[in-house]
Specification:
The complex is a heterodimer of chains A (476) and B (322).
Chain A: H1 2-16, H2 19-41, E1 49-58, H3 64-96, H4 101-118, E2 121-129, H5 135-143, E3 159-165, E4 182-185, H6 191-212, H7 214-219, H8 223-230, E5 238-241, E6 244-247, H9 251-284, H10 288-292, H11 297-329, H12 338-365, H13 369-388, H14 390-395, H15 400-406, H16 412-420, H17 430-456, H18 466-475
Parallel strand pairs in A: 1-2, 1-3
Antiparallel strand pairs in A: 3-4, 5-6
Helix pairs in contact in A: 1-11, 3-4, 3-6, 9-11, 9-12, 9-16, 11-12, 12-13, 12-16, 12-17, 17-18
Chain B: E1 2-13, E2 16-27, E3 31-35, H1 42-49, E4 57-62, E5 75-78, H2 90-100, H3 105-118, H4 134-146, E6 152-156, H5 164-179, E7 183-188, H6 191-197, E8 200-205, E9 208-214, H7 215-221, E10 226-231, E11 246-251, E12 257-261, H8 267-277, E13 280-285, H9 290-299, H10 306-321
Parallel strand pairs in B: 3-7, 3-8, 5-6, 6-7
Antiparallel strand pairs in B: 1-2, 1-4, 8-9, 10-12, 10-13, 11-12
Helix pairs in contact in B: 2-3, 2-4, 9-10
Classes of the chains: A alpha/beta (476), B alpha/beta (322).
Chain lengths: 476, 322
């Protein structure tokens, strides 16, 4: 027993205490943390400040003045509105997830910062150009305007954009269709400003069309009423379940199962790969026999599996806690319950033991890593399978297909983990059954692998094929 | 009390019989040489003793137990296929092996250090195994075989790959283990070492046991009943075959002749009669070496041709110094 753990400990240290592993496993979360810290540092950084003027050349002589009046007003209002929208959404979210006031304040400060960064602080003036203004000359001026990277324009009051509204934009042509307007902008003009101009001028044109139409006037309608009539209602669907009503799945809820599965696959594959590599190394460097003079093959294999399982748990622990930390930070803890996490660990252990046993057997059967490829292909297929059926399961977690797959040995843990974080709760009896099947599978695979391992570790020469491996399982 | 007892041990790999109905008894406290040409089945036998592979049939008792698994801690084993974890440090490797062999964890570290000192590797504790030369690695493995003070020490091809200085060091260490009352079995191609060290010799060839007994009894059994004679006058050589009891006479060097006697003649008597009849510069009774015996057994007959002997001698020399 002690020896098995001595083997396990050596395996664990020999994998974990290497530069490659430390970099590969710890670097991404550390980088994420550093990035988060950097975001905190630039918290008070504001969006680009844009200053300059827009020239509106109006050939319709109806909309020009309105557009010039609206442009700066609209843009300021739109910025405010957008900020308000984001803030409201954030508040709603924190209300929905019943977080502490502390967390809510934190969240709203993040939102504020993000909004500031997103929206440019614009100091934009608009002026009406003469109807016979030389457009080409204005374009030439635009071409030479330099807007620096952070959005600050060069020179005092530079020309930022030119709007040209043709007559046809307000009055329909003979075919009843309206024309469009032209917008010329300086290079590197902030996209928000550009979109602001598009919308403001567009709105002004639509208002002018409505105001200028005799039929609308005759009916006693105004632009404001027509707009509100035309606004399409925007709603959130509500799912009615036995336990109550809730908003239908958001994108975040859809991402959780994928996150679980990636976590499972990464840890299981890393575990298996490392295990196989060490077995092949022990075989090719001929340490194997020395080890076997002190421990039995079964002790050696079990020790190895335990050691590498610990590596996998470490990986899950690191990434899982990063995930939990971010869920807490963004006040989304109710998406994952402790039970879910326990089940995840349960499925991980089954899947990892199965994979580790298979990999140990493969490692024992071959002489070098290169030869392992052919034997590994089917094993890797098993882990890819959940990816292929991911969408089907995601869409209907309790469909007969998903339920059936949940009880098929080897793939069961992967499918269950996919369903685990899904939108519909899994019938409670299915977890024990799937866990039992998975555990039994891992024991059977372990038993077969032990036989291959015992024979394989001292066999050198031609690598065996599947037929030979099966023969070994039956023979020993 | 027997350290190892083997009855009718048989192991086949496919069509090849690696070990065939082998009987073997190793008394406790003895120092046994296990010899045989390449592919004779030595390593297979040793692996079966170690329970690393299992026999097809036959009985095996190690240190009074049914298998080595039950007394692994009392056995030290240096396999023929040697290796270390390349990336592991020497000290860490030996501590790990110590732990696997059940040495008290508190005592392991000191033991490892004092053994490295003895082996002339005091500064290698913190070095990675891959930085060591092949000979050094072998010494590290020797430490891992003996550090837990086993009652039974099995060393497979322990002298291969070592220079003369280290061969002597290992020889001394084996002798020391023997004097401490431990049973030592070592397989080797190096007949010289076997002859110097062993009190028991086992030889197998093609899976069958050819020799089994104390070194003295084997040497006596293979007494070649021959003598080397160097006559003072070269002309007297013609008279040698005619002397009583002489079966044959062959030149064995410059003015040197090898005389073989009939089975009926007493060598002491024959020697006297030679000295009486011919003036000689040198007369000596030829003593069989283990190497001669080995070669005779491998070739399947006594008095093999010089060319055959030469071939095997060269092979042995190559094998023991590789």
């Amino acid at each position: 027993m002690n020896r098995m753990f001595a083997v396990a400990w050596r395996e664990f240290v020999s994998v974990v205490w290497t530069r490659g592993f430390l970099l590969g496993v710890f670097l991404p979360p550390i980088m994420a943390a550093v990035a988060g810290f950097a975001v905190m540092l630039v918290k008070n950084m504001e969006g680009p400040r844009v200053q300059g003027h827009i020239v509106v050349v109006d050939h319709s002589s109806v909309v020009g003045e309105d557009a010039v009046r609206r442009l700066p007003e609209d843009m300021a209002a739109r910025s405010r509105e957008k900020a308000e929208q984001i803030k409201k959404a954030a508040e709603e979210a924190s209300k929905k997830f019943s977080v502490s006031p502390d967390q809510a304040a934190q969240a709203s400060s993040i939102v504020e910062m993000q909004t500031k960064q997103m929206l440019p602080a614009a100091d934009v003036r608009a002026q009406l150009g003469a109807p016979d203004e030389d457009i080409e000359k204005l374009k030439e001026t635009l071409r030479n305007v330099v807007i620096k990277a952070r959005g600050e324009s060069s020179g005092a009051d530079p020309l930022l954009a030119v709007v040209v509204i043709p007559k046809g934009a307000i009055e329909p042509g003979p075919d009843g269709k309206f024309g469009v307007f032209d917008l010329f902008v300086a290079p590197k003009l902030d996209i928000e400003i550009q979109q602001g101009i598009e919308r403001s001028v567009g709105d002004a044109i639509v208002d002018a069309r409505i105001a200028g139409d005799a039929r609308v006037k005759a009916a006693g309608l105004d632009a404001k009423f027509l707009r509100s009539m035309l606004a399409r209602p925007n709603i959130d669907a509500v799912t009615i379940t036995k336990t109550g009503e809730r908003k239908s799945i958001g994108e975040l809820q859809m991402l959780i199962p994928v996150g679980f599965m990636i976590l499972l696959m990464v840890s299981v594959m890393t575990t298996g790969q490392y295990l196989m590599t060490t077995v092949v190394e022990e075989k090719s460097s001929r340490v194997m026999e020395i080890l076997l003079s002190a421990v039995s093959p079964m002790q050696l294999m079990t020790g190895k599996i335990i050691g590498h399982l610990a590596v996998g748990v470490l990986i899950i622990g690191i990434y899982g806690s990063v995930g939990i930390a971010s869920l807490i930070y963004f006040a989304l803890t109710q998406l994952v319950t402790p039970m879910t996490f326990l089940l995840l660990i349960g499925y991980f252990v089954c899947a990892a033991v199965t994979m580790a046993a298979l990999m140990a057997a493969i490692g024992a059967a071959v002489n070098e890593l290169r030869e392992a490829q052919t034997l590994m292909t089917p094993v890797i297929m098993i882990t890819i399978l959940p990816w292929m059926i991911w969408f089907v399961i995601q869409r209907a977690p309790n469909s007969p297909l998903a339920t059936t797959l949940s009880f098929i040995p080897v793939v069961s843990p992967y499918v269950m983990v996919l369903r685990l974080g899904g939108s519909e709760p899994i019938p409670s009896w299915q977890h024990p059954v799937a866990l039992a099947i998975s555990a039994l599978t891992s024991l059977v695979v372990l038993w077969g692998a032990a036989k291959i391992f015992r024979i394989g570790i001292l066999m050198y020469g031609k690598p065996p094929n599947f037929k030979t491996l099966l023969h070994w399982v039956r023979m020993a | 009390m027997l350290a190892i007892e083997i009855r009718g041990l048989t192991k086949t790999f496919g069509p090849k019989v690696a070990v065939n109905k082998l009987d073997l008894s190793v008394p406790q406290g003895s120092l046994c040489g296990f010899i045989g040409p390449n592919g004779a089945g030595k390593t297979t036998t040793i692996r079966m003793i170690m329970s690393i592979i299992f026999p097809d049939s036959g009985e095996l008792r190690v240190l009074g137990k049914a298998s080595a698994v039950e007394s692994k801690d009392r056995i030290g084993y240096l396999p023929e296929e040697r290796g270390v974890y390349r990336k592991m440090k020497v000290g860490a490797f030996l501590n790990y092996m110590g732990k696997l062999k059940g040495i008290d964890p508190g005592a392991t570290e000191n033991k490892v250090r004092s053994w490295l000192e003895r082996m002339g590797l005091p500064n290698e504790y913190k070095k990675k195994c891959e930085e060591l030369s092949k000979g050094m690695q072998q010494k590290v493995q020797f430490i891992s075989a003996v550090m837990h003070e086993p009652d039974l020490l099995i060393l497979d091809e322990v002298f291969s790959g070592l220079d003369p200085v280290n061969r002597r060091l290992i020889r001394e260490l084996i002798d020391e283990q023997h004097k401490a009352g431990r049973t030592v079995i070592f397989s080797t191609h190096a007949m010289f070492e076997a002859e110097q060290l062993c009190d028991q010799i086992f030889m197998i060839h093609k899976g069958n046991k050819m020799l089994d007994g104390s070194l003295q009894s084997i040497l006596a059994k293979f007494d070649p009943r021959s003598m080397l004679v160097e006559p003072t006058n070269t002309g007297d050589a013609e008279r040698l075959p005619a002397l009583p009891g002489v079966a044959s006479c062959q030149p064995a060097g410059k003015a040197l002749y090898e005389i073989r006697f009939n089975d009926t003649v007493d060598p002491a008597q024959a020697m006297r009669s030679i000295v009486d009849s011919i003036p000689v510069r040198r007369v000596e009774v030829k003593r069989a070496t283990l190497e001669d015996i080995f070669i005779d057994v491998v070739l399947g007959r006594a008095g093999a041709s010089t060319a055959d002997r030469e071939t095997i001698r060269n092979e042995l020399a190559a094998a023991s110094s590789e």
